[in-house]
Amino acid sequence: MRTRFTHLAGVVGSPEVLPLSPLKGAEMAALPVVRNAYVEVVDGTISAVGTMADCPLADDGWELRCCQGQWMLPGFIDSHTHLVFAAPRVTEFRMRLDGASYHDIAAAGGGILNSAAAIAQAEESVLLDALLARLETARSTGTVAAEIKSGYGLSLDAERKMLRVIQRARGLQPMPLWATFLALHALPKDRPRADFVADAVDRWLPQLADEGLVDFVDVFCEANYFTADDLLRLAEAAAKRGIELKSHVNQFQSVGGIQASVAAKARSVDHLEVLSDADLDALVGAWGTGYGPMPVALPHCSLFLNIPYTPGRQIIDAGLPLALASDCNPGSAPSSDLRMAWSLATHQMKLRVDEGLAALTANAAFAVNAHQRMGRIQPGMDAHVLLTQPMPDYAELPYFTSENRIAQTLIYGR
Ligand code: NIG
Ligand code: FE
Fold first, then answer.
1. Cβ of 373: how many Cβ atoms within 10 Å?
2. What share of residues in the chain are helix, strand, coil (percent, to 5)?
3. Is pTM, for the whole model, over 0.85?
């Protein structure tokens, strides 16, 4: 299958094969652009990028697509979602509007435990159908690949059910998916914490990993949830099996999760709404000598819970990379819309247009260890791209706060 996209207003990408390392600091604002461009895709892989002046004329065997006035951008990679869930949590939404906080609701036995009760009751096939529908929705706003976490199971059987849903979704739709065993998300009522941590880390992880259901592990490292020591213990058990850690850290308080994640060589550190100077220094130190954990901001969570936005401007100005993800989940971020996350990142976090795009593409790919295959438009990369409606400047995508001006999202060029 050979497709040539012609007469594009432009491509955010490069004719040359550029290095695939994550984009840090000032690099994020300087993405390569080819104006008046064409792109060739052969069997799902980008094979050429260039200007129309150099566009080959031979058309036998090629499917030709004239994209007059449209832009082609790398598709968005959602490196942090909780897309398997049984039901929205609208009762808690009403409670919060009456003045209760996220913590009040959790302390009263709601929150994550609420979603866990619903998962325990739900049929696997019902969860699967809901996931497939949510992936379609995400695709309409530019998502081409997604990481999906378990963590609403809180028992071996229910965690396995969630991870199996992700596994089965792989065969039923085209989007590349990563399954994360969110081993330590909340402590079930009446479970001694030492027992629960030992179960999740020493018994469930090995079984689920042996069943081929685990690409990454995760932990909610936060006051009233799990500690930096729990994080280290999980990371160590996972590392023995060649599985990397992604962590929920610094959403409400700084409790040493970033330092522990750096020590554990985590793939990413996600949330970071609260970031102390020592936390930032730990990340700068980690990235100073090579690759550290990718900082991942989740602006839908800040919007929905009305908590501070991750200081993305400060993170980039410190010379670090930054990724953006949706965190789509029923309790703190009920949206998979990454185009809107880009918009929030520019309007609320003061990221520049290209910084937001780099955060959703090349850097997001690093956050799931897929940067060798996706996140950029250049020869050799998988053709996971989006086409805008005709527009003079792709800045219209984040400029509009709610209007979606993405015309099409292509996965392996289809
Ligand atoms: O990323 N912070 C922990 N986990 C999710 C929210 C979980 C929930 O409330 O259902 C998050 O925000
Ligand atoms: Fe999350």
1. 16
2. 35, 20, 40
3. yes
Ligand nearest to the CA of 80: 2
Query: Which residues make Cβ contacts (< 8 Å) with residue 134, sequence separation at least 6?
Result: 83, 328, 336
Domain with CATH 3.20.20.140 in the chain: 76-367
Q: Is 226 a pocket residue for ligand 1 (Cβ < 6 Å)?
A: no
For position 300, what pLDDT does the model report?
98
Residue with tokens 């000598």: 289
The CATH code of domain 2-74+376-410 reads 2.30.40.10
Q: Which atom of ligand 1 is nearest to the CA of 152?
A: 10
**Taking the domain 76-367, which CATH number applies?**
3.20.20.140
Expressed in angstroms and rounded, the spacing between residue 274 Cα and the centre of ligand 2 is 15
Query: How many A from CA of 50 to the centre of ligand 1?
Result: 43
Residue 289: per-residue pLDDT: 84
Q: Tell how far CA 13 is from the center of its chain.
A: 21
Q: How far is the CA of 98 from the centre of ligand 1 (A)?
A: 20
Is the CB of 11 inside a 6 Å radius of any atom of ligand 1? no
- Every domain of the chain with CATH number 2.30.40.10 lies at 2-74+376-410
What residues are paired with 40 via a beta bridge? 4, 48
Task: Tell me the mean pLDDT per 10 residues along the chain, length 414.
Answer: 97 98 97 98 98 94 97 99 98 97 93 97 98 99 99 98 98 98 96 97 98 98 97 98 98 98 98 98 96 98 98 98 99 98 98 99 99 98 99 98 98 98
Counting from 1 in the atom list of ligand 1, the atom nearest the Cα of 112 is 10
Tokens of 16: 């040359």
CB 178 within 8 A of CB 147: yes
Q: Whose CA is nearest to atom 12 of ligand 1?
A: 332
